[in-house]
Specification:
alpha+beta; 13 strands
Length: 180
């Protein structure tokens, strides 16, 4: 039994939900998101609550039950509050600047790295080399942040690279000079 899937989803005021067939569309103050609901899942709307139910007790239905409930809840949170991931750049000469909607980064390569902002994603660059990736779709915000981090992963000896602000890098001691 899915404990996550059985929890009802509360719909805040100002959020419009439209369920038509296998599609669900959520509209709010920050924008609109849509998702295709699997055939094994049924969503029922009761005033300010959504109930996610499965059609049968087959394995695939049970697998998709909690997932679908979480996806719909994230859609509601996205159009009301939005999502953000914070990254920090550590290293001498490593920096980032905003170029319109895009992001330009100096990461120790011979050339600057230009990152185009996908649709629905915005970047905010602070003076302390902190990048904030913001958007209404949780999956795309996380993917863009992971792609930025992948450009120069933090290394364990000096701790240089691009990392999440809450990430902890386990440092290694490094090699010592041989004594004779």
């Amino acid at each position: 039994m899915s404990r996550v899937g059985n929890q009802p989803i509360s719909v805040p005021t100002g959020v419009e939900i439209n369920i038509s067939g296998e599609n669900i569309t959520v509209k709010g103050a920050k924008g609109s998101l849509s998702h295709v609901i699997p055939q094994e899942i049924v969503i029922e709307k009761d005033n300010a609550l959504l109930n996610v139910k499965r059609a049968n007790e087959e394995r695939k239905s049970r697998e998709l039950h909690g997932l679908t409930r979480t996806m719909v809840n994230n859609m509601i949170l996205g159009v009301t509050q939005g999502f953000e991931k914070k990254l920090k750049i550590v290293g001498v000469g490593y920096r980032s600047t905003a170029k319109g909607k895009d992001l330009e980064m100096q990461l120790g390569f011979s050339h600057p790295v230009l990152i185009k902002a996908p649709e629905g994603i915005t970047f905010d660059v602070a003076k302390d080399n902190t990048i904030t990736v913001m958007g209404i779709n949780k999956q795309s915000v996380g993917q863009v942040a992971a792609d930025i981090r992948k450009l120069r992963k933090p290394e364990p000896y000096k701790g240089k690279g691009v990392m999440y602000t809450d990430e902890r890098i386990i440092r290694k001691a490094g090699k010592k000079g041989a004594k004779k």
